[in-house]
Amino acid sequence: MAADIDFNNRRKYSRHELHLAVEIVTGDNIYYGITNDVSKGGMSILINGPVYDQEPIQVGVFRIVEGIEDSIPPLGINGVVAWSRIMEPGAFSAGIRFIDLGADEEAYLADLVGAKDVAAAPF
What is the rounded distance in angstroms from the CA atom of residue 16 to the CA atom of residue 36? Predict the structure, then answer.
């Protein structure tokens, strides 16, 4: 008997439902939105403008301290768009794969998802 394989979850890291404010900076635009979920390798987002597959972006993640959005500038994380979809006019969803994470980004993501080691990986 063949082993059961779950083809629905091809991600290397578990996703955690988490709703954070984000800003997405592309080569030409800045969009705003929220995260649906976050993993050590990436996130899915809902935003107010289009991004395109394989487009390099920077994600500004607004820091949360004791449940409140902090006033310091958002943490900048480099990423690439893994997939994108139009949900309705003016509303878009996308999957972002993190790249080139620094120590600050790794530590913040580890805290968000409750992990010890964070490494950039396929989303």
Answer: 9
Q: What is the pLDDT of residue 123?
A: 38
* In-domain check, residue 122: no
In a domain, 54, yes or no: yes
> Within a domain: residue 10?
no
Gap between the Cα atoms of 56 and 79, Å rounded: 6
Domain span including residue 48: 16-113
94 in a domain, yes or no? Answer: yes
For residue 17, name the pLDDT band (cuts at 50, 70, 90).
confident
pTM of the model: 0.77
Of the candidates 116, 122, 118, the one whose C-alpha atom is nearest the C-alpha of residue 101 is: 118
Cβ count within 10 A of residue 46: 15
